[in-house]
Amino acid sequence: MAFFFNRGRSRQPADVVRSTKELLLRLQESPNTPKAEEDLAKQLSQMKVIVQGTQEVNTSPDQVHALIQASVQDDLLYDLSRSIHLLPFEARKDTQTIFSHILRFKPASYLDPKEPPKDPPVISYLVHHRPEILIELCRGYMQSQSAMPCGVILREALKFDVVAAVVLYDQSKEGEPAVRLSDLKPNLPQKGDGVFWNFFDWIDKSNFEVSADAFTTFREILTRHKNLVTAYLATNFELFFGRFNNILIQSDSYVTKRQSIKLLGEILLDRANYNVMMAYVESGENLKLCMKLLRDDRKMVQYEGFHVFKVFVANPNKSVAVQRILINNRDRLLRFLPKFLEDRTDDDQFTDEKSFLVRQIELLPKEPVDRSRPAQSQSGVNTAAVA
Amino acid sequence: MAEDMASRYQVMEELGSGSFGVVYKAIDTATGEIVAVKHIDLESSEDDIQEIQQEISVLATCASAYVTQYKASFLKGHKLWIVMEFLGGGSCLDLLKPGVFNEAHVAIVCRELLQGLEYLHAEGKIHRDVKAANVLLSHTGKVKLADFGVAAQLVNIKSQRNTFVGTPFWMAPEVIQQAGYDFKADIWSLGITAIEMINGEPPHASTHPMKVLFLIPKQPAPRLEGNEYSSTFKDFIAQCLTKDADRRPSAKELLRHKFIRNAGKPEALQELIHRKQDWDAGRGVSKDVKYYAESLNTITKPPSPEEEDDDDWVFDTVKAPSMWVPKGTDWTTLDEDENETDPAQLMADMHISQPPLPPRHQPNSTVRRTPVAERSPSTRRANTKRRSSGIKQPLGLDLSYGNSPSTVRQFRRVSDKAPSETPKVPPGFDENSSPKVASGEPTSKEAQLGHRAYSRAVGLSCQEVLSTTGDGEKREAISRLAEAWSDLEMVDPEGLYHIIRIMNEKLQADPRLNTMIPTSPQPDSPGRPRLVLAQNNPHLKSHRRRQSSVAEPNPPSPLSNMPGQNPAGMEHTKQLSDVLYQRWAEGLRNRWGI
């Protein structure tokens, strides 16, 4: 009788993993085999029940642990991560659920409050032994079927800075082994063809759903782990902002354009990125780009652009290039700004900020002042005006 | 590519306006299939586009016969098109217009909904806004859950949510109490929806939605009363409306309930659809069909010569190719007498899709003021950090779109341009509404100030305190106070003004209390807010924050490591601009919530 009751749960995790792996390999060889797809979907759905339980049945940590061990042993996660686009609809969602759960899974020994907190074992496994899985998950953005499930899994993994580090620094080509965490060389400038740099194209060239999801992940990478990103941006400043300006800010897609201007503001205004901000607002080219946004024909683009533009103007140590552009356009700006988005009457902060900018622009000297040199006796014009 | 996608759909008449966007009927020319296309104008939305993506991603991962099927989404200019399956029967709320449903119909709808909920819940999704308005029928009577605007995707099947969303009348007690809730919240809403279908309205429909929020947790759960209803139906509703969420049955369990097992075929619901059609015909409602017309502002157009702006920026280097280079203008000269055409203004003038100003409420109207169609895009997120202020309607649950109380995402602030607008009640509830009488147009200056004080300060303060109060009893007390202020504002704005004025004077007069009150800022300091701030004005918070950040004895000045920033004779300039800059950066950080 016991046999009867156990039917649903009789199969050991290791068996499920083995059958899943076999079916995956079969599907990779000959995609679109309905029989294999169907069988695979069944296996994955069983696996999902093991990691997630149901509303009635709780999970057993031992079973989950056994499943993870078997997956590592059979290298199942790698094959799974690169085959998501081949799976049927429900199986893709199940895969997403399985990954999300096992990425977070911590065995009881990890939860000892006396021990310092450790990353979950699967995270450590990924960054030290099988970073290729992370890279494959990113490449999920190359197919619309896999983009969203891969995005969800990635963002779950990117909660850990070690994962973000691998994604940022990996430069492996397809088929090559990816970089291990211990082999990262943060001080070496990037060539710009690693997996992280592909995000620019995925965001720019994909259809809306894929693009939007890729952007969400991109944003997560750049905003979650401050120290990591600050160092990365410092080392790769030109490359990064070159692409950011050219591909994202000037994207033809309204959403990409608007979201990336906003993200630019977030990156620049982050305390941790102070040096990055100073470098960015020093460049006349960046200011020009920004001033063009103020004249975009879409109001929300203008609005987002304003919030980057104001950083240039508010910076008390403007570079000569920036001063020159502002001074050359002083009269135009002073005519332009009062009318700029003037229907935002209920937005006091915006109005305040606008009048602050107007005042700052009025106070600009007649000629650019090079403040990085020892000061020559500068005229008291703006001094008096400020006082 | 996006343009190709758009041209694949031939858009026809308007079906209605949804939670944020207009829905059209359309034909997919590739398949000949009729679909519903929702157009969301992203330009009019300050929301994070990510929230809209969230809705799409919840929809896109649903594949159930009981959930409206998502087909595609893409951008056209600054409009997002979401293509969905077309359901010709209308919503249950529409079908209720000719009259209430009978028990047999309710049973069928409930069974179909339970199957939809069973699917969603197994997927780790909570709908969070189940109500008749969000239940759509196909013309054959198939029932589908719609509008996933506030649905939640749980990462973990057992995890809980705390967010305060939904529509007050349909909200489960545990959602209101924000003590953590799960799938069971949808079951409660289903029970309320069942009452709505049999009675024509949810319980407490005549009560102010704000008040409902504390009635639901406090009062015993609503029950269906009356001999005309079967005992199984009453029991079904009692099961759904179990206040203790742990003891409330799941969708799966309820599918085994006798009331549900005995329900008929969905085809029987066609009766309701026909009844509605007859009713429409009987009323001689010539369907006011609005056809889709591409609005000017979705067409990205190259600048025409007349619009070329001579006032464009002067950059002394070669222009990027993406710039329009006006012909015949000498770039190196600055001519002050140039044409002052402002492209932003020109564009604004072309926004033909902007809604006309809503009619102001009539003086001496005896019922509550009617809602206006206008809805500011900023109302969806309450504590949005982006705007420090703005006229925010106090304690208003936005009930303005369509003809049903719309969904609360957090607390909405209804920011209408008219500060005297009061919390809104949908027209359907007018005849039942509480006997408050709207005062006429404010005549005296005091009355106007009273309205303003209420909308700018009092209501907001109550709301702010409420949002930071967790304790149920305290919340209730605050809600009552807020309600009382709102009544006073409606009946006697002048009195309200006097109370505040006198209160202010008394506060000022007391030596200990008056330290709480900010002295008015120096008139000539440019960056300071010019408002005289009431103590409870939310501006004050940010004002104080700014001040304290300036006054901080040792601010971790981000500028201290800047090279050569101390030109001789300019020190005080530097200090000043540092202060300004810091205040500035502070504001920026608030904006991005960093």
From TrEMBL, chain A:
GO terms for biological process: intracellular signal transduction. Residues 368-387 are annotated as: Disordered. GO terms for molecular function: protein serine/threonine kinase activator activity. Transmembrane segments: none annotated. It comes from the Eukaryota. Residues 374-387 have a biased composition (Polar residues). One of its GO terms (cellular component) is cytoplasm. Coiled coil: none annotated. Pfam families: Mo25. Belongs to the Mo25 family. This is Conidiophore development protein hymA.
From TrEMBL, chain B:
One of its GO terms (cellular component) is cytoplasm. ATP binds at K38. Residues 351-448, 539-570 are annotated as: Disordered. The lineage of its organism: Eukaryota, Fungi, Dikarya, Ascomycota, Pezizomycotina. Residues 431-446 have a biased composition (Polar residues). Its EC number is 2.7.11.1. One of its GO terms (molecular function) is metal ion binding. It catalyses: L-threonyl-[protein] + ATP = O-phospho-L-threonyl-[protein] + ADP + H(+); L-seryl-[protein] + ATP = O-phospho-L-seryl-[protein] + ADP + H(+). InterPro entries: Kinase-like_dom_sf (IPR011009), Prot_kinase_dom (IPR000719), Protein_kinase_ATP_BS (IPR017441), STE20/SPS1-PAK (IPR050629). This is non-specific serine/threonine protein kinase. It comes from Penicillium cinerascens. Its main location: cytoplasm. Its cofactor is Mg(2+).
